[in-house]
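Box 3.1 — From sequence to structure: Elongation factor Ts
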Amino acid sequence: MSTVQITAADVNKLRQQTGAGMMDCKKALVEANGDFEAAVDLLRKKGQKVSAARSGNATSEGLVSIAISADGTNGKLVALACETEPVSKVEDFRNLAQAVLAAAVAHNPATAEELSAITLEDGRTVAETITELTGKIGEKIVIQDYSNISGEKIVSYIHSNGKMGVLVVFEGVNGADITEAGKDVAMQIAAMNPVAVDKEGVDPATIQREIEIAKDVIRAEGKPEEMVEKIAAGKLNKFYKDSTLLNQEFVKDSSVDVRKFLDNTSKGLTVTAFKRVQLGA
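Predicted structure (token representation):
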């Protein structure tokens, strides 16, 4: 039982310090007998409990944030996810997304795990800050995706709803201005969702699956067995054309594929890698 009088000013001070709700702050101060540091710890523990309780919940909403280095050779993408759309629009959530992206830019972590361990200006790690906001909001928040990629020229695109982002690595720029072309290709990736840059980048398991599906379809159509392999090879080439970036028809000019569009933009220009992230996909 608390022997210390908890005033409204005390509650408000703790609320300002932690961002937690008024009643939560009052309960924490009562339980901590007026000790502010202990109350902060109690609120943090509450956040951890909330986080654990909601660990199985789906995070289909959130915000994708991107930063490109001043010289254009590095791009970082952070997808901070939550459970519901209203939370993704809350100022605290959006501020957290920007703080996590700023930490990535400042410390250059290679993985999401390294990003989560970075200590922010207030002395808390990214992971601890996410846990505390989870406690305050009462909804699961996670770094759903993080990418840190480098190359000759990085171009980015974020969809208008903030839930999809793309990073594209271009090589063979040779001083050309690829601002518009780069944006077009990034938007192509957003719209068409290729599985790889080119044929060589497709997972062998995916190729085998496409071949087996094609064979089953061909046999079901009653085609002679001696024709199955040849027709299946044709269907695989169609898969490459539809599903690998450089072989896809360019969405703004179907008379050329993306490979040809890039070469027409600047001789030797190509894409060597990309990252596409879509929350809720």
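Summary of the box: The longest helix spans residues 225-243.
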